[in-house]
Design brief:
Layout: H1 2-28, H2 33-56, H3 64-92, H4 97-121
Helix pairs in contact: 1-2, 1-4, 2-3, 3-4
């Protein structure tokens, strides 16, 4: 349970970074929201990897290249799911992009990111 709480805190902090970058790019720099979502997600992924490796899963004593390779695979999948989900909700259902981003982020974090980070990326095997 401690690992789950720490990983969710790390994910929340990474999400704050993700959302801030997205909002800045879309609202201040008038970037297309799909591009802003993708860049924000990349920034969030980098911060989440570092937090996960060093704090949530205490896996800094293990091979970082192996973890980074696996994390990149999971993050790539997460990026595709997040970006596609936000696009479908925003353009398809005409939901405001930030509301779409929140809904999709919650869904992907719990159902995709956490299990794969815990058991694939930072596992002790």
């Amino acid at each position: 349970m401690v690992v789950f709480v720490k990983s969710q805190f790390s994910a929340a902090l990474a999400t704050v970074i993700d959302f801030l970058i997205t909002i800045i790019l879309v609202e201040l720099f008038n970037m297309w929201y799909v591009s802003g979502v993708a860049i924000g997600a990349l920034c969030g992924a980098i911060s989440n990897f570092l937090l996960g490796r060093h704090w949530s899963y205490r896996a800094s004593n293990r091979d970082w290249q192996h973890q980074l390779t696996r994390y990149s695979l999971v993050s790539g999948g997460s990026l595709i799911l997040n970006t596609t989900g936000v696009y479908l909700l925003t353009d398809g259902l005409e939901i405001q992009y930030l509301v779409s981003k929140i809904l999709i982020a919650i869904l992907i974090t719990i159902s995709f990111n956490y299990p794969l980070h815990r058991y694939f990326v930072f596992s002790q095997r």
